[in-house]
Design a protein that fits this description.
alpha+beta, Rossmann fold, Dna Ligase, domain 1, D-amino Acid Aminotransferase, Chain A, domain 1, five-stranded parallel sheet, five-stranded antiparallel sheet, 13 helices
Length: about 425
């Protein structure tokens, strides 16, 4: 079996690691890959955004399945292009990827499908946005409608903070076209949960719920990021809750997509808020999440490749098998992240102990062959333990040993879970 993996971050390294661990005979090609992925796959210098180049690579190599990691090529139509040439590919079409690339599209879908979510005003007009801010009051959420690499959401604690966010997006165009249309959304109180669902468009199977830590600093302080860590399983994500999400959110969404010529295949990521009124959607993503993927895949006992193949054609798996363990991922971020991450710093990866995995995200080799930082989130350190406390300790200890000037890490990944389970330390 020959598989092409598109992307070069921590999520893609975790996918490569799982595919290789399940079956070392699978021939992996990664484009563009990274130094960590290069230990498991042959890396080709084709950018994830170069759809024509990726198509030529897939045809030249006669790959049997292409797996797309990042959202950019999905939104740009890579799945459409590959399917036109008769090539099997895991991911949604461009029309289906609108569920992530356009938050206004996702809101309309949820409203028409009856999917529970926060009320919102969608607008490109500054005065309309300001009126919506005053209508909802603080706290209030300001979101860029387009793709913004995890940086397009502001949870404003005051009216002034919200209006400043509106001005940055609509007047200053701080995120360019991604923020030319925004959502002013009512604040939802509760606890966040990430649920990944594999689907062929009709059949759907949930993965283990996980929880991401979006804020930069301990105690959920500081700015939003793409994610500073994650853990699984989550006590909040009971089988009953997952079933409720499937019935009230996932299946109605998939049905609406089918009925509106946007059948969704691949991995549907539901970012949820579990409120006093039940689970509601914060956002949808059209691909594996990062860093949740790094936390989830080491716990997945079922082989991954048949699941990816099934979602690309017909998914007939009844349920997934998971290790009865806990997983915690700590992200090692570069100095200056998230606003102005510094690149080119030497990276020293510590000697690993059992049950600890290092997934490369923003790394590269310099002219001398040394490992250096090349992105905001540099490494993801995942540890497996008998409980969240043990896994968190192992992950944190390894992250603290990473050599990287000015590195940023959170020391409290999984703190809610440990507290809810009565674990400490």
């Amino acid at each position: 079996m020959k598989v092409l993996l598109v992307g070069g971050g921590g999520r893609e390294h975790a996918l490569a690691w799982k595919l290789h661990s399940d079956d070392p005979t699978v021939e992996l090609i990664a484009a563009p890959g990274n130094p960590g992925i290069a230990e498991l796959a042959r890396c080709e210098p084709v950018a994830a955004a170069d759809i024509s180049g990726l198509l030529a690579l897939a045809e030249r190599e006669r790959v049997e399945l292409t797996v797309v990691g990042p959202e950019g090529p999905l939104a740009a139509g890579i799945v459409d292009r590959f399917r036109e040439r008769g090539l099997a590919i895991f991911g949604p079409t461009a029309s289906a990827a609108h569920i992530e690339s356009s938050k206004s599209f996702a809101k309309r879908m949820m409203r028409e499908a009856g999917v529970p979510t926060a009320r919102a005003v969608v607008t490109s007009d500054i005065e309309t946005a300001r009126r919506a801010v005053r209508h909802y009051g603080a706290p209030v959420v300001i979101k860029a409608s387009g793709l913004a690499a995890g940086k397009g959401v502001v949870v404003a604690q005051t009216i002034a903070e919200a209006e400043a966010a509106v001005d940055r997006l609509l007047e200053d165009r701080s995120l360019g076209d991604a923020g030319s249309e925004i959502l002013v959304e009512e604040f939802m109180a509760g606890e966040e949960l990430s649920l990944f669902v594999l689907t062929d468009g009709t059949n759907a199977i949930p993965m283990l719920p996980a929880q991401d830590h979006k804020r930069l600093l301990d105690g959920d302080a500081g700015p939003n990021t793409g994610g500073m860590g994650a853990y699984a399983p989550v006590a909040l994500g009971t089988p009953a809750l997952v079933q409720e999400v499937m019935e009230s959110i996932i299946h109605p969404s998939l049905q609406w997509m089918r009925e509106n010529d946007a059948t969704f295949t691949g991995l549907l990521y539901a970012g949820l808020m579990v409120t006093g009124d039940g689970p509601k959607v914060v956002e949808f993503n059209c691909r594996f999440g990062d860093p949740e993927t790094q936390a989830l895949l080491p716990l997945l006992a079922s082989p991954l490749l048949p699941l990816l193949q099934g979602a690309a054609s017909r998914l007939d798996v009844a349920e997934l098998s998971w290790m009865p363990r806990a997983s915690v991922t700590t992200v090692v971020a570069a100095a200056g992240y998230p606003d102005a991450p510094r690149s080119g710093d030497l990276v020293e990866v510590p000697n690993l102990v059992a049950n600890v995995h290092v997934f490369h995200a923003g790394t590269a080799r310099d002219a001398a062959g040394r490992l250096v930082s090349a992105g905001g989130r540099v490494l993801s350190i995942t540890a497996i333990g008998g409980a969240v406390r043990e896994a968190a300790f192992l992950s944190r200890a390894a992250a603290e040993k990473v050599g990287l000037a000015g590195k940023q890490i959170r020391l409290d990944i999984g703190w809610r879970e440990a507290a809810s389970r009565g674990e400490s330390g």
